[in-house]
Amino acid sequence: MINILEGVTIKNLRGPLSVQPVIFTAGQPTEAEIADMGRRGIRTVINLRPPSEQVGFDEARLASDSGMAYVGIPVAGAADLTIANAERLASTFETHSAPFFLHCAGGNRAGALLAVKVARIDGYTVEQALNLGVEAGMTDLYETVETLLR
To answer: Is the pLDDT score of 137 beyond 70?
Structure first.
């Protein structure tokens, strides 16, 4: 896949991912970056930030106004790296259009939830899932995810 977000400067932007080429991950985008993503061809924005972390603008409305679907899956931290949230992520990938932009505040939770999803739902090995998680931005949650998947 062509990197439709090439040149975009969103914090910790990753993608297209090697084995998931329709997924981009990152930290929190600005209003202008969200509008730009719609123009560049992103079709679905998936926000992992819970309501307590929301920024000063209506991201769901802005995504919609920019021609993208918007899905919120609150993942406040390690306790929310659950099979239920991994299933919600998988369902979003199945029922919404690609390419996807998956984000949290800095990319760590995005990579971590993606790792849980591919290990528990898609049948990746623990090592494959952890590698994808790191590629997608997982940092501080690495040991937590490794323990969860073993």
So the answer is: yes
> 98: which 2 tokens?
């690609």
**40/47 Cα distance (integer angstroms):** 18
Q: CA nearest 147: which of 123, 112, 106, 108?
A: 112
Q: How many CB atoms lie within 10 A of CB 22?
A: 16
Structural domain boundaries in the chain: 23-107
Q: What is the CATH superfamily name and number for domain 23-107?
A: Protein tyrosine phosphatase superfamily (3.90.190.10)
60 Rama sector, left if φ>0, alpha if ψ -120 to 50, beta otherwise:
alpha
The average pLDDT across 109-132 equals: 98
Closest CA to 13 of 81, 128, 86, 101: 101
pLDDT at residue 79 tops 80: yes
Provide the residue count of the chain: 150
Q: What is the pTM of this model?
A: 0.97
Residue at token pair 């899905």: 71
DSSP helix/strand/coil, 70: strand
